[in-house]
Amino acid sequence: LIESASIVFYDALVGHGAIEMIAPHAARVPIGKRAGRHSQSQDAINALLIHAALAGERVVRLKGGDPSIFGRSAEEIDAHAAHGICALICPGVTTASAAAASAGRSLTLRGSARHLRFMTAQSCDGDAEPDWASLVDLATTLAIYMERGSAARISRNLIAYGLSPTTPVLVTSGVSLPGKRCTTTRLDLLALVVKGVAAAGPVLIIVGKAMCTRATDQAVLNALVTAL
Amino acid sequence: LIESASIVFYDALVGHGAIEMIAPHAARVPIGKRAGRHSQSQDAINALLIHAALAGERVVRLKGGDPSIFGRSAEEIDAHAAHGICALICPGVTTASAAAASAGRSLTLRGSARHLRFMTAQSCDGDAEPDWASLVDLATTLAIYMERGSAARISRNLIAYGLSPTTPVLVTSGVSLPGKRCTTTRLDLLALVVKGVAAAGPVLIIVGKAMCTRATDQAVLNALVTAL
């Protein structure tokens, strides 16, 4: 699909490998958009895509991760449908799957981590307080797509509502990209670790026993906390 | 990875395209395993993989979907680690992402479907009754990996605990495979539709407003229900 496009609109989180697949003669349009500092509004992006399609271009809209998980693809699909433009969706590997693979862990564990929840920190911010109590469940793995500034609030609330301070958390940034960072910590150390992992940009954290590292790693971490 | 393997162990849900990538000289070992009728136990599969790796083979373990989401990859990773065998995980497109793409929908909607939960119907069966009340949330999209027999129970409970009978549900079977089926229905018609979609084998249902089809389709569906 990428190779056959005459124009490609791509996000800030798209890897170099995908960009390299674009045909030499095709137009390349970066439309980076990050929570908190939108370089272009979703409406402006929709208008750009539709304008290109109506002009007869073969348009590819390239996103990092999977477009159907916090990718705002519904808004782009609906805008196209309203103009009678047919759009095909190519699914991708969502960031949580890539992060778990990179850390050699599984997001679910048979019998003990039987549920998996995806959310964004945006739904933890502002007026609409999430139902923290419902998020605290030992049989659930929580994958939270967030900005680094949300770490302290998430950690404090999950512990206040009953998760153990020693709950393992995988912290990742730039998964599948050259500058990727990936480390495992404990829920009570989350804010500290997030500061060290990501200078800026989005962070994905995965909370729950499925992220448990080997017993020896855990013992070293616990000894460090005791020494602090 | 697939092309460089000297032996490939693959699941029943792996597509023909992936099988065709296996080198002609490599051994191909089907180890199909389906809930309810295990052709091989997980322990037997672990033993096969480890035996091949210790014999010096370049082993690829091929699964449908993403191995970290209800794929029991943790058990295989841990078994390998216990034998000092290094295993790399290649993440995949999970079935829910492929199903949403196939239906032209998104699993999340900004502002209105802000949470996404994955679960299996197994965690709805047997003694351990799930917390149905916690599953009923208008801002959540529920993706349930299940056998077709679980449809009536899931539909009945979600409605009893407060979801509207008209909540849209995407029902899919064999996503990304030649015999794939994909249809949108209402929660109260789920059991009926699942019977029509899948003769056997696993079904994925996606429940929530993010699966809403165009208003015209919905009107036709509602008229049908009224006529019944």
Question: In total, how many beta strands of chain A?
Answer: 8
Strand order of the largest sheet of chain A: 4-5-8-6-7
- Kindly provide the radius of gyration of chain A, computed on alpha-carbon positions and rounded to a whole number of angstroms: 20 Å
Give the chain pair forming the largest contact, with residue counts.
A-B, 47 and 47 residues
Separation, N- and C-terminal Cα atoms of chain A: 53 Å
Pick out the low-confidence regions of chain A: none
Order of helices and strands of chain A: EHEHEHHEHEHEEHEH
Beta-strand content estimate of chain A: 15-25%
Bin the helical content of chain A. Answer: 25-40%
Helix-and-strand structural type of chain A: alpha/beta
User: Total number of helical segments of chain A?
Assistant: 8
Main β-sheet description of chain A: 5 strands, mixed
What average pLDDT do the residues of chain A reach?
Answer: 87
Globally, the shape of chain A reads elongated
The oligomeric state is homodimer
Written description of the protein model:
2 copies of one chain form a homodimer. In chain A, strand 6 (168-173) and strand 7 form a beta hairpin. Chain A has 8 helices and 8 strands; from the N terminus they run E-H-E-H-E-H-H-E-H-E-H-E-E-H-E-H. The first copy, chain A, has helices at residues 16-20, 42-54, 73-82, 95-103, 132-135, 151-160, 190-197, 215-227, and strands spanning 7-10, 27-30, 59-62, 115-120, 140-147, 168-173, 181-186, 202-207. Chain A has 228 residues and is of the alpha/beta class. In chain A, helix 2 (42-54) packs across helix 3 (73-82). The model of chain A has no long low-confidence stretch (mean pLDDT 87). In chain A, the strands form 2 sheets. A 5-stranded mixed β-sheet of chain A has the order 4-5-8-6-7, sandwiched between helices. The termini of chain A are far apart. Helices cover 32% and strands 19% of the residues of chain A. At the A-B interface, helix 3, helix 4 and strand 4 of A face helix 3, helix 4 and strand 6 of B.
